[in-house]
Structure formats: structure tokens, C-alpha cells
């Protein structure tokens, strides 16, 4: 990691994506830039959780803190999908069926119940992760390898469960939900994009967690 003045960098306007557009994660290019040694910090040192401050949040390794800081947005996407779905529900029917009210259809009951389970499960993993980070920071306790891997796994679980919940709400929203002014389609694109992020990907995080549970060394230092 290096500290470089923004005036020495070139920003490339290339963040033209199907999801997560609001993050503005454009490419930043450094060309022929000199960075003095005092502005450089080796990444393994950052990730290992070495203490350099008495601030509680800085007593934990970077990635568990980053994971706990990220899950709120993902959980919020699932809750926003739920809100968007139920806001439209009273005025909807199911086209090409006898149901003049969508909320009277058993298939709707199944969809919203299953989605509610997914949101509740995502909420559990999000709060377990946040509670672990808070308690470890408050106690200045060292992190075990298993706890670090579990933090990544909880992050991935929130992403997967939120995606599943949003997908259920989106599928139950019908063809009219694909219009650009209907929030559910944007939420669905955002949560899908989240799940493709290398550090948030549920499968990658579960593989790492499983390796550690099986007594193997992790195959990454991003813990």
C-alpha cells in the first residue's frame, strides 16, 4: 500500500457497469511516480493485524473489519428489495391467471416466506460478524486463523443469502419490474454485481473457510 497525492494520478472514466454504478470504482493510473519509503506499507503487514494504534477498530486485522463494514450495504439491498416488492403488491394481479390480487396467490406466499427466511439468515451472519469484530477489538484479543476465515465466510454468506432473497422478490415482481423506473431491477443488478467481487464471492470464501476447518493452511494471505 502506498500514499500518493491525487494530483500525481490519472483517473480513467471506465466504470460503465450493469451494477454497483454508484460506487464510482474507476481506474486510477500512476505513471512515473516516485513514492518515498515512508509512504509505503507492505500489504502482508497490514493484513496481519500488527498494532500501531490504541483505537479499538485498529486492533483487528484489516479484512475482518472491512468485511464487517461491507455487510450492512448488502443486507440493505435485501431489505430494500423487500420494501420495493411490498410497496407494489397491493395493486398487482397475476397476468394470465384467475388471481386479481397477487397477494392472494399461494405462490406469492411461498416466495415472500422464503425470501424472509433468507433476509433473516443474512441478518444473523451480518451481526455475528460485527459482534465478533467488536468483541475482539474491545478485548484487544488476538485473532485465530479460524476466526479470520469465519469472518470471510460470514461475509460471503450475507452476499449469497441477500442475492437469493432479492432474486425471489424480483421473480415475484413480474415483467413490469424490468422497467428502469422500478427499483427492484436496479437492486437485483447491484446484488448480483456484489456477489462477483473477488473478496465477497460466497464460493471463494466458503472454500477458504472449509480449508481451515479441515486443518489445512489457507491458500491466501487475505485473511
From TrEMBL:
Transmembrane segments: none
Domain of life: Bacteria
GO MF, one example: oxidoreductase activity, acting on the CH-CH group of donors
Domain Acyl-CoA dehydrogenase C-terminal span(s) in chain numbering: 72-202
Alphabetical list of InterPro entries matching this protein: Acyl-CoA_DH_C, Acyl-CoA_Oxase/DH_mid-dom_sf, AcylCo_DH-like_C, AcylCoA_DH/oxidase_NM_dom_sf
Keywords assigned: Oxidoreductase
Sections of the chain in a coiled coil: none
Pfam families for the chain: Acyl-CoA_dh_2 (PF08028)
Protein name: Acyl-CoA dehydrogenase C-terminal domain-containing protein
Originating organism: Phytohabitans rumicis
